[in-house]
Amino acid sequence: MTMAEDAVPVIAVDGPAASGKGTIAAGVARALGFHLLDSGALYRLVALQAIGKGIPLDAEKRLGAAAEGLDVVFDGDRVRLDGRDVTEAIRSEAVSAGASRVAVHPAVRTALYSRQRAFRRQPGLVADGRDMGTVVFADAPVKVYVTASAEERARRRHKQLIEKGISSTLDGLLRDIRDRDARDAGRAAAPLKPAADAAILDTTNMTIDDAIGFVLEQFQAKKR
Ligand code: DC
Questions:
Q1: Strand order through the sheet with 72-75
Q2: CATH code at 128?
């Protein structure tokens, strides 16, 4: 797909948990001066809301209503839910697992579509998630599927947690990552998979700067 002159360009960056896609998407957005959508944060907010309100993670209708009614403000790097700063709260392991559970429900996914599409504004958008290139921005001119081996992703997560002073075991993290991959890829609604027209970027042995450079090259090539 080439870029339509009048359409707001979207760069879709999809991939599994801890693949580096969030850091890559943020770096690309910064380099181009584009808006950034961290779509996983929306699923995390639904999970946080559900846990806080005691909504079971399999109660599709109630979760859909919670997703519809989210009172969320993205303010630079900070996220507020119902006026409360939840930037750190949505990154906990409990919310990570909960997000992957609420994300299986079509009612939740549908409720979040228009919120995600509202991020598409000039001069452009970098959208990070699982189904940016396959569903939400299926017409995106640039699609990249970021991946890395499960072992490498567990090692990266382990390092991040050590830096935050949180103890964990590599085996436990690897198990969590594999569980989350299976749930994200195995669900019926918008499963995690590369779009047919996505470029595959394996970051197992790559630096973040090289990965950002790869995505920027893909974008420049589409502009030619
Ligand atoms: O990218 P993340 O780890 O913040 O995403 C958290 C969970 O949300 C992930 O396990 C699956 C779900 N998710 C999704 O289903 N679709 C998206 N576009 C983004 C995230």
A1: 72-75, 78-81, 84-85
A2: 3.40.50.300
pTM exceeding the 0.85 threshold for the entire prediction: yes
The count of other CB atoms within 10 Å of the CB of residue 204 is 12
Tokens 């970027």 sit at which residue? 201
> pLDDT per residue over 23-66, tens digit each?
999 999 999 999 999 999 999 999 999 999 999 999 999 999 99
Cis peptide before 191 (omega within 30 of 0): no
Residues with CB under 6 A from ligand 1: 17, 39-40, 43-44, 99-100, 103, 129-131, 180, 184
Strand partners, 13: 128, 144
3-state secondary structure of 140: coil
Number of neighbouring beta carbons within 10 Å of residue 196: 8
Output the CA torsion sign for 15, 20, 24, 26.
positive
Q: Report how far residue 16's alpha carbon sits from residue 201's, in angstroms, rounded to the nearest whole number.
A: 12
* Domain around 194: 3-223
Indicate which atom in ligand 1 lies nearest the CA of residue 132.
Answer: 18
Give the count of domains, the chain: 1
pLDDT digits (tens, 9 = 90+) for 94-127: 998 899 999 999 999 999 999 999 999 999 999 9
Candidates 39, 117, 126: which one to mutate for ligand 1, based on the most atoms within 8 Å of Cβ? 39
In angstroms, the CA 147 to CA 138 distance is 19
